[in-house]
Amino acid sequence: MTIADSGCLMENGGSCLPCTPDEEKKIVKDLMDEAELDLKEGNFYYIVSTRWFARWERYVGLSSDDHLVDTQSSDSQDLAAVPTSIPDRPGPIDNFDIVENGNNGEGDDLELARTLLEGRDYVLVPQKVWEKLFQWYKGGPALPRKMISQGVFNKKQFSVEVYPLRLKLIDSRDDTEFTIRLSRKASLHELYERVCTLRGTEREKAILWDYFNKHKQLRLVDSNRTLEESNLQMDQEILLELQVHESYPSQFGKDSTGNELALVALEPSRTSTSIAGGPTLSNGHSTCSLNLRPGSVLNSGVTDTDDGFGASSGVRRVERGGLAGLQNMGNTCFMNSALQCLVHTPPLVEYFLQDYSDEINTENPLGMHGELALAFGELLRKLWSSGRTTIAPRAFKGKLALFAPQFSGYNQHDSQELLAFLLDGLHEDLNRVKQKPYIEMKDWCGRPDKEVADECWRNHKARNDSIIVDVCQGQYKSTLVCPVCSKISITFDPFMYLSLPLPSTVTRSMTVTVFYGDGSGLPMPYTVSVLKNGHCRDLTQALSTACCLRSDENLLLAEVYDHRIYRLFENPYESLTSIKDEEYIVAYRLSQKETGKRKLEIVHQEKSTPDFLKGSGWKDFGAPLLAQLEDDSPSAADIELAASRLLSRLKRTSSSNVVHSDKENGFLSEVNGEPSNSCNGRFESMDQLMDNIESEPEDTSSQALSFHLLLTDDRYSSRKPIFKDSVIKSGANRIKVFLDWTEREHKLYDSSYIKDLPMVYHKTGFSAKKTRQEAVSLFSCLEAFLTEEPLGPDDMWYCPGCKEHRQATKKLDLWTLPEILVFHLKRFSYSRYLKNKLDTFVDFPIHNLDLSKFVKQKDGRSYVYELYAISNHYGGLGGGHYTAFAKLIDDNRWYNFDDSRVSPVNEADIKTSAAYVLFYRRVEPERKVGLGETSQGHTGS
């Protein structure tokens, strides 16, 4: 498609419109489709703030169902429900809300904030799309990123490297530090070139060390080996040393503590026995014992020297195993939580501390050639042999990134999704079946359930036989019924965990600051309780009661972002799930009589150091004020009068009895602060308010207003003075002005009332309170999981009777349960453009979880379980934190594993609303269990 050249520039720096919104949409869609057909390594994509991109999508007429790029921005939700006014053209591209060092950096110095999520905070657009958007809108800054290829075998996939590897180079000559950014797919040769260019050193004399945790781990040899393969992590140090003589200098043979370093190959030769049969020492030799147990004599620096965090060299007696922490290597708390739960699973501990080399399946095309099982087993051995030494699981993370690229990089991920991958991956790597036979499944045909279930399990075991199947897999019965012909289909399928739904009819506390649109009262935050899945109407009703809203008033909800009104919630049926906990929501009390009138938004500014990127020398602060205007074309006096009203209650008490006026122009400048007769401290009526405002003198010759008010445009990009004889004409429904707070205003008014708005929900630290009033039991979650329900419209069943896809009803039943039973509490709900978390407190038994009544197969086995591990998630989406509780069975004590920190925890404190994945172990009849708890899970008092 040929596009007209856009050479002219508008006053705001953007180019003049080259085409209509529909044409822009078509051009971008065509370029998106073209890029999708040409995916290859090295392609450039650009990061664009979701806030800006959502505005552009609205401008070109995209609805919530046909986004060009998946987004979860609040702008992109419920667009169809918003009043059908024509959206304004977005201003210049603004990516500063996702850049960490904001306006202080430029070019390669710009850093993305570390907690960004694709779709929620940013979108990725192909290079040609960026070039078009920049041609039309200008702005920036440009944030280009390369596409890389990840994974191995049939698991290769393309992804954009949003966060390139950032390394801290330490020059040993003067201990100076430098930051180097390279793709993790870059080679060590490229790293040497970058370092030598940066430090002006000769390539032949440069020696680089992997300096993880400020200990020499391994010499980085100039080669084509990638940084990722070398296990280099985000923000870790590398050390530069210079070889001053041809012979290897003596100081290079010592680590940072002065201990001698053994010169070893980059890849010590390892057989499967040396890894699976016993922990490998740093010199590549294995211990003589193949049947290791906690408390064995081991070298603390097992296998990879990088895995010991602060470990001293030499052989020592290990204290108690299983109490080692895992170092966080950049948003890896999700991985650490999942791993601690698995490495404290008793049957897996027993299995991986023995010789399991004979069961490694290197031929399974569905597995990872045994490498994942070897890496996991090696890590488990280290955790159980290192006492309380913290382990940095770099080698394991490298294998994980290789075989599961979805978990690579440094973004936060889901611990349950990782657990599911690990259980499946370990099973395939340890599958005792080398050649899977083809088995044709038989139909149910009305046969007895036990016959069909046994047959399905035999068929499953013929193809899947591993330690994971032995201890982690159960079987459930699935019944489908056609709603048209009543055809019944029954299958028996294996499972490794049960994902339980949580009741959604729980409440949510929301804090909203209420402002008076007539200035007759001070701003006041109110915390109300509403249904999590409620609507804006529910929130306004709760606020109306809390703030004693009068019958002649309305509340208008708004989101404040960067001290400006970002969006108005004018649709009463907009879902409250679109409001995130970390957002700032305000409500304006406005008169019903003036509904539909033009509104005035006042944005506060104060003097600041001039910004060379944004100019002006003024910065926004506080929360904006909003008032209704009686006239659609207000005069300067109308604007000033409205500002006077809104600021009237902010007047400082020290000058409450003084009437201030500007003697130079005689214009209205201040409100008389006589005490109000109202018991609530607000004026009873606008007449009373006006009586307290000094009237404007009739004779004046000045053209300036007493307030420093400046008119701005819809994008807040201009500052135009307002003179007393001005008439404000604007096609927009909201007139926006800046109120400049000089030293005079700060002396007269107390700005603290408009500063420091509380967020919708704010809690300090990662704490999870036991909200008993919203508690549900684990049994009710399980019952909801087993309740008959219709399939979704996107999950239709092909009925063999009707020969059509039908929305059948589905009923699940538990047939048999495994020795290790894992419950996943579905706290996260996902739709295409929205994610939400439920903080519902689930009351789960610690001891004597009796599931006998839920199991259909009566085989005489025990179905009583006790808890031994929990994966916890604290906080909200994107910015949350994972930890784990795990019980040392032999010690009969619980511990809190928070990355590298390990501490005892009371059993009574492990039940929190942060519990995400629960791990239970079957209690055999002869095994003694804890007392004081009934089978229903309620603690005795």
TrEMBL record:
Catalyzed chemical reaction(s): Thiol-dependent hydrolysis of ester, thioester, amide, peptide and isopeptide bonds formed by the C-terminal Gly of ubiquitin (a 76-residue protein attached to proteins as an intracellular targeting signal)
Alphabetical UniProt keywords: Hydrolase, Protease, Thiol protease, Ubl conjugation pathway
Residues covered by the DUSP domain: 19-148
PROSITE patterns referenced in this protein's UniProt entry, alphabetically: DUSP, USP_1, USP_2, USP_3
Enzyme kind, highest EC tier: hydrolase
Entry EC number(s): 3.4.19.12
Record GO terms (molecular function): cysteine-type deubiquitinase activity
A Gene Ontology BP annotation from the UniProt entry: proteolysis
Domain USP, residue spans: 324-923
InterPro entries associated with the record: DUSP-like_sf (IPR035927), Papain-like_cys_pep_sf (IPR038765), Pept_C19_DUSP (IPR006615), Peptidase_C19_UCH (IPR001394), Ub_carboxyl-term_hydrolase (IPR050185), USP (IPR028889), USP_CS (IPR018200)
Pfam families referenced in this protein's UniProt entry, alphabetically: DUSP, UCH
Taxonomic superkingdom: Eukaryota
Task performed by this protein: Recognizes and hydrolyzes the peptide bond at the C-terminal Gly of ubiquitin. Involved in the processing of poly-ubiquitin precursors as well as that of ubiquitinated proteins.
Similarity section: Belongs to the peptidase C19 family.
Protein name: Ubiquitin carboxyl-terminal hydrolase
Species in which this protein is naturally found: Manihot esculenta (Cassava)
